[in-house]
Design goal:
Length: about 290
């Protein structure tokens, strides 16, 4: 694969590691706004920081997005579409709404710009190591174009189907993950109240069938006094539940578990905690 200039918009907690992984094989350009927490790491990886979103898009052969939500994705695409050249490729690694993704993909196709949804699972460590899992929504032709880039960020890459299916798969994945997180927090918060030593309960679950990756990310660090094992914000967890709820409803298959359980849980937690609180942090005593 020839060396190409990659634009990366959204170098936050996850995006920074992805940009650094891409920079091992290609020149990467980005821009920063209010949050400059990762600037030193980006510069240390040889990534060039430009003044604006438009400047990045204008100089990029491939444009990666890692943005907070579907509304921001829509706004950013609208800003850059005029400076992208026909044949350009936008790779959206955000967690977004499939309906919005399909709408943008059709719209951009009229300008011969491909939108590929390629959301990921994994955390910041996997992001920087290039060992994420990518779920890709793209035509077979566009998948062949994007796969060499995703091989730099991900150990597992699965084409789910046409545009929008990558984001649909990510919402199903996160529905399960947020469900496991909510069950973990709800159960483990109550150990003391029913006379069960939480540390011993963590030992039991860690060796039993109820063990999960989510449980292990949250609870062993909590026992050790750390509340950042699952580096995923309450705000993003609540958003994922809303998006899954909307996706299932649009498909005519609403989820009773979301309607009566997860949505209520995360709505209540967002009233009690700051939105940037990590899900693991819900194990602290309530503020």
């Amino acid at each position: 694969m020839d060396m190409m200039r990659i634009g990366f918009l959204g170098p936050g907690l996850m995006g920074t590691g992805m940009a650094m992984s891409l920079a091992r094989a290609h020149p990467v350009i980005t821009t920063l706004h209010r949050n400059r927490a990762h600037e030193g790491r980006l510069l240390g990886a040889g990534i060039t920081v430009l003044a604006s979103v438009e400047a990045v898009a204008e100089q990029a052969d491939v444009l990666f997005l890692c943005l907070p939500n579907a509304d921001v994705v829509r706004d950013v695409v609208e800003r850059v579409r005029g400076v992208l050249t026909p044949g350009a490729m936008i790779v959206d690694t955000s967690t977004s709404l499939p309906s919005v993704t399909r709408e943008i993909a059709v719209d951009l196709s009229h300008s011969r710009i491909a939108l590929i949804d390629a959301p990921v699972t994994g955390g910041p460590a996997e992001s920087e190591a290039g060992t994420l899992v990518s779920m890709v929504g793209a035509s077979e032709t566009d998948f062949a174009r994007v796969e060499p880039f995703l091989q730099l960020t991900s150990k597992t890459i699965v084409r789910m189907g046409p545009p929008g299916t990558g984001h649909a798969a990510k919402l199903i994945n996160n529905f399960i993950t947020q469900g496991q997180a909510a069950l973990t927090v709800e159960a483990m918060r109550r150990c003391d109240s029913v006379g069960v030593d939480m540390t011993r309960m963590v030992e039991v679950i860690s060796a039993s069938g109820s063990r999960s990756g989510t449980f292990m990310a949250i609870m062993p660090p909590v026992v050790a006094g750390h509340y950042d094992g699952l580096k995923f914000s309450l705000e993003n967890a609540a958003k994922d539940v809303r998006y899954a709820r909307a996706m299932f409803a649009d498909a005519g298959v609403p989820s009773r578990l979301i309607e009566d359980g997860l949505a209520a849980f995360f709505d209540a937690e967002t009233r009690d905690w700051p939105p940037e609180t990590y899900v693991s942090g819900l194990m602290r005593k309530r503020p």
